[in-house]
Amino acid sequence: MDQSVAKARFEKPFTQQEPIPEAAIERAVEIMRSGRLHRYNIAEGEEPEAALLERDYAAWQGSDYCLACASGGYAIHVALRALGVRPGEPVLANAYTLAPVPGAIHNSGGIPVLVEIDGAYHIDIDDLRAKARSSGAKVLLLSHMRGHISDMEAVGAICEEFGIAMIEDCAHTMGARWKGVRSGNFGHVACFSSQTYKHINSGEGGLLTTNDPDIAARAIIHSGSYMLYQRHGAAPDEAAFARCKLQTPNYSGRMDNLRAALLRVQLALLDDNISRWNALYSELERGLNAAPGVTIPERLQHEAYVGSSIQFRAVTLAGDALPALVLRCGERGVELKWFGADEPAGFTSRYDSWRYMPAIPDLPNTMTVLANTFDIRVPLTFDLDDCRLIAKIIGEEVAGLQAV
Hints:
2 domains; alpha/beta; 14 strands; Aspartate Aminotransferase, domain 2; Aspartate Aminotransferase, domain 1; single chain
Protein backbone atom coordinates (compact mmCIF):
# COMPACT_ATOMS: atom_id res chain seq x y z
CA MET A 1 0.00 0.00 0.00
CA ASP A 2 1.23 3.48 -0.83
CA GLN A 3 1.97 5.07 2.55
CA SER A 4 1.28 8.56 1.21
CA VAL A 5 -2.41 7.65 0.99
CA ALA A 6 -2.54 7.30 4.75
CA LYS A 7 -1.11 10.74 5.45
CA ALA A 8 -3.37 13.16 7.30
CA ARG A 9 -4.92 15.85 5.13
CA PHE A 10 -6.22 19.29 6.11
CA GLU A 11 -9.69 19.96 4.71
CA LYS A 12 -10.54 23.59 5.52
CA PRO A 13 -9.94 26.44 3.04
CA PHE A 14 -7.37 29.09 3.93
CA THR A 15 -9.45 31.83 2.32
CA GLN A 16 -12.72 31.30 4.19
CA GLN A 17 -13.49 34.22 6.49
CA GLU A 18 -16.13 34.36 9.18
CA PRO A 19 -19.54 35.64 8.09
CA ILE A 20 -20.34 39.33 8.38
CA PRO A 21 -22.12 39.94 11.73
CA GLU A 22 -25.90 39.97 11.52
CA ALA A 23 -26.13 43.51 12.91
CA ALA A 24 -23.90 44.74 10.08
CA ILE A 25 -25.99 42.89 7.50
CA GLU A 26 -29.18 44.41 8.89
CA ARG A 27 -27.72 47.93 8.74
CA ALA A 28 -26.45 47.32 5.20
CA VAL A 29 -29.93 46.20 4.14
CA GLU A 30 -31.41 49.39 5.64
CA ILE A 31 -28.98 51.46 3.59
CA MET A 32 -29.76 49.52 0.41
CA ARG A 33 -33.48 50.05 0.96
CA SER A 34 -32.88 53.78 1.38
CA GLY A 35 -30.95 53.94 -1.89
CA ARG A 36 -28.47 56.34 -0.23
CA LEU A 37 -25.24 54.41 -0.79
CA HIS A 38 -23.10 57.40 -1.78
CA ARG A 39 -21.48 58.92 1.28
CA TYR A 40 -22.64 62.46 0.49
CA ASN A 41 -26.22 61.50 -0.42
CA ILE A 42 -27.99 62.14 2.88
CA ALA A 43 -31.36 63.43 3.97
CA GLU A 44 -31.79 66.47 6.18
CA GLY A 45 -30.56 65.75 9.71
CA GLU A 46 -28.80 62.48 8.77
CA GLU A 47 -25.14 61.68 9.19
CA PRO A 48 -23.68 59.32 6.57
CA GLU A 49 -22.49 55.90 7.67
CA ALA A 50 -19.03 56.61 6.23
CA ALA A 51 -18.73 59.69 8.46
CA LEU A 52 -19.80 57.66 11.49
CA LEU A 53 -17.14 55.07 10.66
CA GLU A 54 -14.51 57.82 10.43
CA ARG A 55 -15.51 59.11 13.85
CA ASP A 56 -15.54 55.62 15.37
CA TYR A 57 -12.20 54.64 13.87
CA ALA A 58 -10.46 57.88 14.87
CA ALA A 59 -11.60 57.31 18.45
CA TRP A 60 -10.53 53.64 18.41
CA GLN A 61 -7.15 54.42 16.87
CA GLY A 62 -6.55 57.47 19.08
CA SER A 63 -6.03 59.85 16.17
CA ASP A 64 -7.48 63.28 15.49
CA TYR A 65 -8.57 62.70 11.90
CA CYS A 66 -9.70 59.76 9.78
CA LEU A 67 -10.64 59.30 6.13
CA ALA A 68 -12.58 56.28 4.85
CA CYS A 69 -11.65 55.45 1.27
CA ALA A 70 -11.80 52.82 -1.44
CA SER A 71 -8.82 50.62 -0.53
CA GLY A 72 -5.66 50.45 1.54
CA GLY A 73 -3.56 51.02 -1.57
CA TYR A 74 -5.60 54.09 -2.43
CA ALA A 75 -5.12 55.38 1.14
CA ILE A 76 -1.33 55.06 0.66
CA HIS A 77 -1.47 56.92 -2.65
CA VAL A 78 -3.50 59.73 -1.06
CA ALA A 79 -1.08 59.86 1.89
CA LEU A 80 1.89 60.24 -0.45
CA ARG A 81 0.17 63.03 -2.38
CA ALA A 82 -1.02 64.74 0.79
CA LEU A 83 2.60 64.80 1.97
CA GLY A 84 3.58 66.52 -1.26
CA VAL A 85 5.38 63.73 -3.13
CA ARG A 86 5.94 64.85 -6.70
CA PRO A 87 6.97 63.03 -9.88
CA GLY A 88 10.56 61.86 -9.80
CA GLU A 89 11.01 62.22 -6.05
CA PRO A 90 12.53 59.30 -4.09
CA VAL A 91 10.42 57.48 -1.51
CA LEU A 92 12.05 55.07 0.93
CA ALA A 93 10.29 51.73 1.47
CA ASN A 94 11.21 48.35 2.92
CA ALA A 95 11.78 45.75 0.20
CA TYR A 96 9.64 43.09 1.91
CA THR A 97 6.10 44.23 1.17
CA LEU A 98 3.26 43.57 -1.25
CA ALA A 99 2.78 44.99 -4.73
CA PRO A 100 0.23 47.74 -3.84
CA VAL A 101 2.92 49.56 -1.84
CA PRO A 102 5.40 50.25 -4.66
CA GLY A 103 2.33 50.60 -6.88
CA ALA A 104 1.09 53.50 -4.74
CA ILE A 105 4.53 55.14 -4.92
CA HIS A 106 4.47 54.76 -8.72
CA ASN A 107 0.92 56.16 -8.82
CA SER A 108 2.08 59.27 -6.96
CA GLY A 109 4.95 59.73 -9.42
CA GLY A 110 7.55 58.86 -6.81
CA ILE A 111 10.48 56.50 -7.29
CA PRO A 112 10.82 53.65 -4.77
CA VAL A 113 14.14 53.44 -2.95
CA LEU A 114 14.00 49.95 -1.49
CA VAL A 115 15.65 49.21 1.85
CA GLU A 116 17.01 45.85 3.02
CA ILE A 117 15.27 43.79 5.70
CA ASP A 118 16.83 41.86 8.56
CA GLY A 119 16.32 38.20 9.43
CA ALA A 120 13.16 38.96 11.41
CA TYR A 121 11.39 40.71 8.50
CA HIS A 122 11.99 44.24 9.82
CA ILE A 123 13.46 47.13 7.88
CA ASP A 124 17.26 47.08 8.27
CA ILE A 125 18.16 50.09 10.41
CA ASP A 126 21.70 50.49 9.06
CA ASP A 127 20.57 50.32 5.43
CA LEU A 128 17.73 52.73 6.18
CA ARG A 129 20.17 55.28 7.59
CA ALA A 130 22.54 54.86 4.64
CA LYS A 131 19.76 55.28 2.05
CA ALA A 132 18.17 58.16 3.93
CA ARG A 133 21.52 59.92 3.62
CA SER A 134 22.28 58.97 0.01
CA SER A 135 18.81 59.33 -1.54
CA GLY A 136 17.71 62.65 -0.09
CA ALA A 137 14.21 61.17 0.28
CA LYS A 138 11.78 63.14 2.42
CA VAL A 139 9.23 60.34 2.85
CA LEU A 140 9.50 56.82 4.28
CA LEU A 141 6.66 54.42 3.48
CA LEU A 142 7.14 51.79 6.19
CA SER A 143 5.18 48.58 5.74
CA HIS A 144 4.59 46.55 8.88
CA MET A 145 4.66 43.61 6.51
CA ARG A 146 2.75 40.54 7.64
CA GLY A 147 2.38 42.15 11.06
CA HIS A 148 6.08 42.50 11.93
CA ILE A 149 6.68 45.86 13.62
CA SER A 150 10.22 47.24 13.48
CA ASP A 151 11.99 49.07 16.29
CA MET A 152 9.89 52.21 16.02
CA GLU A 153 12.19 54.23 18.23
CA ALA A 154 15.15 53.54 15.93
CA VAL A 155 13.12 54.21 12.76
CA GLY A 156 11.68 57.39 14.22
CA ALA A 157 15.11 58.64 15.21
CA ILE A 158 16.38 58.25 11.62
CA CYS A 159 13.34 60.06 10.27
CA GLU A 160 13.93 62.92 12.69
CA GLU A 161 17.64 63.04 11.90
CA PHE A 162 17.06 63.40 8.14
CA GLY A 163 13.80 65.36 8.17
CA ILE A 164 11.77 62.46 6.76
CA ALA A 165 8.00 62.16 7.06
CA MET A 166 6.82 58.63 7.85
CA ILE A 167 3.78 56.90 6.41
CA GLU A 168 2.91 53.68 8.23
CA ASP A 169 1.34 50.95 6.12
CA CYS A 170 -0.69 49.16 8.78
CA ALA A 171 -2.63 46.80 6.51
CA HIS A 172 -1.41 43.87 8.65
CA THR A 173 -1.20 45.61 12.04
CA MET A 174 -4.64 47.08 12.75
CA GLY A 175 -4.80 46.85 16.55
CA ALA A 176 -1.15 45.90 17.05
CA ARG A 177 1.09 47.88 19.41
CA TRP A 178 4.73 48.76 19.98
CA LYS A 179 5.53 49.52 23.64
CA GLY A 180 1.82 50.05 24.24
CA VAL A 181 1.33 52.53 21.38
CA ARG A 182 -0.99 51.51 18.57
CA SER A 183 0.60 50.80 15.23
CA GLY A 184 -0.11 53.82 13.03
CA ASN A 185 0.51 56.38 15.76
CA PHE A 186 4.25 56.78 15.16
CA GLY A 187 4.37 58.51 11.79
CA HIS A 188 2.81 61.55 10.15
CA VAL A 189 0.04 59.46 8.60
CA ALA A 190 -1.11 55.83 8.71
CA CYS A 191 -3.00 53.67 6.23
CA PHE A 192 -5.16 50.63 6.97
CA SER A 193 -7.00 48.11 4.83
CA SER A 194 -10.40 46.45 5.14
CA GLN A 195 -9.87 44.08 2.23
CA THR A 196 -11.37 40.64 2.89
CA TYR A 197 -8.14 39.07 4.19
CA LYS A 198 -7.42 41.87 6.67
CA HIS A 199 -8.70 42.37 10.23
CA ILE A 200 -12.06 43.88 9.35
CA ASN A 201 -13.79 42.92 6.13
CA SER A 202 -15.68 45.03 3.60
CA GLY A 203 -14.32 43.24 0.52
CA GLU A 204 -12.28 46.32 -0.35
CA GLY A 205 -11.75 49.47 1.67
CA GLY A 206 -9.18 51.63 3.38
CA LEU A 207 -8.73 54.05 6.25
CA LEU A 208 -6.24 56.88 6.63
CA THR A 209 -5.44 58.49 9.99
CA THR A 210 -3.34 61.49 10.96
CA ASN A 211 -3.03 64.18 13.62
CA ASP A 212 -2.01 66.83 11.08
CA PRO A 213 -4.97 68.99 9.97
CA ASP A 214 -3.35 70.00 6.68
CA ILE A 215 -2.57 66.40 5.70
CA ALA A 216 -6.14 65.44 6.64
CA ALA A 217 -7.69 68.26 4.62
CA ARG A 218 -5.64 67.47 1.52
CA ALA A 219 -6.38 63.74 1.83
CA ILE A 220 -10.13 64.36 2.14
CA ILE A 221 -10.19 66.56 -0.96
CA HIS A 222 -7.96 64.11 -2.84
CA SER A 223 -10.47 61.35 -1.99
CA GLY A 224 -13.19 63.17 -3.88
CA SER A 225 -15.07 65.28 -1.36
CA TYR A 226 -15.78 68.08 -3.84
CA MET A 227 -16.73 70.92 -1.45
CA LEU A 228 -18.66 68.55 0.83
CA TYR A 229 -15.79 67.98 3.26
CA GLN A 230 -17.97 69.14 6.17
CA ARG A 231 -19.83 65.81 5.83
CA HIS A 232 -16.82 63.88 7.13
CA GLY A 233 -16.93 62.53 10.66
CA ALA A 234 -13.32 63.12 11.76
CA ALA A 235 -12.14 66.10 9.72
CA PRO A 236 -10.23 69.29 10.58
CA ASP A 237 -11.92 72.67 10.76
CA GLU A 238 -12.73 74.95 7.84
CA ALA A 239 -9.43 76.81 8.08
CA ALA A 240 -7.43 73.73 7.04
CA PHE A 241 -9.59 73.25 3.94
CA ALA A 242 -9.43 76.95 3.08
CA ARG A 243 -5.65 76.63 2.80
CA CYS A 244 -5.79 73.85 0.18
CA LYS A 245 -9.22 73.37 -1.39
CA LEU A 246 -8.48 75.14 -4.68
CA GLN A 247 -5.00 73.64 -5.14
CA THR A 248 -5.80 69.99 -4.37
CA PRO A 249 -6.96 67.64 -7.14
CA ASN A 250 -9.85 65.18 -6.78
CA TYR A 251 -8.83 61.51 -7.26
CA SER A 252 -12.29 60.04 -6.48
CA GLY A 253 -11.61 57.13 -4.13
CA ARG A 254 -14.31 57.48 -1.49
CA MET A 255 -15.76 54.71 0.65
CA ASP A 256 -19.52 54.23 0.30
CA ASN A 257 -22.04 53.93 3.11
CA LEU A 258 -22.65 50.24 2.44
CA ARG A 259 -19.08 49.19 3.18
CA ALA A 260 -18.91 51.56 6.14
CA ALA A 261 -21.96 49.85 7.66
CA LEU A 262 -20.22 46.47 7.42
CA LEU A 263 -17.12 47.83 9.15
CA ARG A 264 -18.62 49.75 12.07
CA VAL A 265 -20.01 46.60 13.69
CA GLN A 266 -16.79 44.66 13.09
CA LEU A 267 -14.69 47.40 14.67
CA ALA A 268 -16.48 46.85 17.97
CA LEU A 269 -15.48 43.15 17.82
CA LEU A 270 -11.86 43.68 16.78
CA ASP A 271 -10.15 43.54 20.17
CA ASP A 272 -11.79 40.20 20.97
CA ASN A 273 -10.87 38.89 17.52
CA ILE A 274 -7.24 39.87 18.03
CA SER A 275 -7.15 37.63 21.11
CA ARG A 276 -8.60 34.77 19.04
CA TRP A 277 -6.06 35.27 16.25
CA ASN A 278 -3.19 35.30 18.71
CA ALA A 279 -4.32 32.04 20.32
CA LEU A 280 -4.26 30.38 16.89
CA TYR A 281 -0.90 31.95 16.05
CA SER A 282 0.61 30.69 19.33
CA GLU A 283 -0.52 27.14 18.61
CA LEU A 284 0.95 27.24 15.11
CA GLU A 285 4.15 28.78 16.45
CA ARG A 286 4.53 25.98 19.02
CA GLY A 287 4.01 23.31 16.43
CA LEU A 288 6.31 24.79 13.81
CA ASN A 289 9.07 25.54 16.30
CA ALA A 290 9.05 21.84 17.22
CA ALA A 291 9.61 20.80 13.59
CA PRO A 292 13.27 20.15 12.65
CA GLY A 293 14.42 22.41 9.85
CA VAL A 294 11.77 25.07 10.51
CA THR A 295 12.50 28.39 12.21
CA ILE A 296 10.25 31.28 13.13
CA PRO A 297 12.02 34.58 13.84
CA GLU A 298 11.49 35.62 17.42
CA ARG A 299 9.03 38.48 17.88
CA LEU A 300 10.43 41.56 19.58
CA GLN A 301 9.64 41.81 23.26
CA HIS A 302 7.84 45.15 22.95
CA GLU A 303 5.63 44.07 20.04
CA ALA A 304 1.97 43.21 20.65
CA TYR A 305 1.07 41.70 17.29
CA VAL A 306 -2.06 40.48 15.54
CA GLY A 307 -1.48 36.87 14.49
CA SER A 308 -3.65 36.71 11.38
CA SER A 309 -0.77 35.15 9.43
CA ILE A 310 2.46 33.37 10.30
CA GLN A 311 5.81 33.20 8.50
CA PHE A 312 8.48 30.54 8.81
CA ARG A 313 11.78 29.72 7.15
CA ALA A 314 12.61 26.24 5.90
CA VAL A 315 16.30 26.68 6.64
CA THR A 316 17.41 23.14 5.71
CA LEU A 317 15.85 23.25 2.23
CA ALA A 318 17.22 24.80 -0.93
CA GLY A 319 16.80 24.71 -4.69
CA ASP A 320 13.96 22.57 -6.03
CA ALA A 321 13.02 21.44 -2.53
CA LEU A 322 11.51 24.87 -1.79
CA PRO A 323 8.79 24.87 -4.49
CA ALA A 324 8.36 21.15 -3.79
CA LEU A 325 7.36 22.03 -0.22
CA VAL A 326 4.57 24.26 -1.57
CA LEU A 327 3.40 21.44 -3.83
CA ARG A 328 3.55 18.69 -1.21
CA CYS A 329 1.79 20.73 1.46
CA GLY A 330 -0.81 21.78 -1.09
CA GLU A 331 -1.52 18.16 -1.92
CA ARG A 332 -2.32 17.67 1.76
CA GLY A 333 -4.58 20.74 1.93
CA VAL A 334 -2.12 23.23 3.44
CA GLU A 335 -1.82 26.37 1.33
CA LEU A 336 1.63 27.93 1.59
CA LYS A 337 2.75 31.17 -0.02
CA TRP A 338 6.45 31.27 -0.93
CA PHE A 339 8.29 34.58 -1.13
CA GLY A 340 11.35 33.09 -2.81
CA ALA A 341 9.83 32.36 -6.22
CA ASP A 342 11.37 34.05 -9.26
CA GLU A 343 7.93 34.89 -10.66
CA PRO A 344 4.96 36.35 -8.75
CA ALA A 345 2.03 34.05 -7.94
CA GLY A 346 -1.38 35.20 -6.74
CA PHE A 347 -0.95 37.90 -4.12
CA THR A 348 2.71 37.04 -3.49
CA SER A 349 5.60 38.74 -5.26
CA ARG A 350 9.24 39.55 -4.57
CA TYR A 351 10.64 43.03 -5.08
CA ASP A 352 12.59 42.12 -8.23
CA SER A 353 9.31 41.39 -10.04
CA TRP A 354 8.29 45.08 -9.89
CA ARG A 355 10.06 45.80 -13.15
CA TYR A 356 8.38 49.14 -13.76
CA MET A 357 10.87 50.60 -11.28
CA PRO A 358 13.72 52.52 -12.96
CA ALA A 359 16.25 50.02 -11.60
CA ILE A 360 16.02 46.80 -9.59
CA PRO A 361 18.35 47.16 -6.60
CA ASP A 362 20.77 44.56 -5.34
CA LEU A 363 19.49 43.55 -1.90
CA PRO A 364 21.40 40.38 -0.96
CA ASN A 365 20.15 40.07 2.61
CA THR A 366 16.53 40.47 1.59
CA MET A 367 17.02 37.85 -1.12
CA THR A 368 18.57 35.44 1.40
CA VAL A 369 15.76 35.88 3.90
CA LEU A 370 12.95 35.59 1.35
CA ALA A 371 14.52 32.62 -0.45
CA ASN A 372 13.20 30.17 2.17
CA THR A 373 10.35 32.20 3.68
CA PHE A 374 6.84 30.75 3.62
CA ASP A 375 3.61 32.37 4.69
CA ILE A 376 0.31 30.99 6.00
CA ARG A 377 -2.97 32.81 6.43
CA VAL A 378 -4.69 32.16 9.77
CA PRO A 379 -8.43 32.80 9.34
CA LEU A 380 -10.67 32.80 12.38
CA THR A 381 -12.56 29.87 10.86
CA PHE A 382 -9.65 27.70 12.09
CA ASP A 383 -9.44 26.22 15.59
CA LEU A 384 -6.54 24.99 17.74
CA ASP A 385 -6.78 21.42 16.45
CA ASP A 386 -6.54 22.77 12.91
CA CYS A 387 -3.36 24.62 13.81
CA ARG A 388 -1.83 21.48 15.31
CA LEU A 389 -2.58 19.52 12.15
CA ILE A 390 -1.22 22.25 9.85
CA ALA A 391 2.05 22.39 11.80
CA LYS A 392 2.26 18.57 11.76
CA ILE A 393 1.82 18.41 7.99
CA ILE A 394 4.44 21.10 7.36
CA GLY A 395 6.90 19.43 9.72
CA GLU A 396 6.44 16.07 8.03
CA GLU A 397 6.89 17.47 4.55
CA VAL A 398 10.01 19.46 5.49
CA ALA A 399 11.46 16.30 7.03
CA GLY A 400 10.58 14.29 3.96
CA LEU A 401 12.29 16.75 1.63
CA GLN A 402 15.38 16.84 3.85
CA ALA A 403 15.67 13.10 3.39
CA VAL A 404 15.48 13.27 -0.41
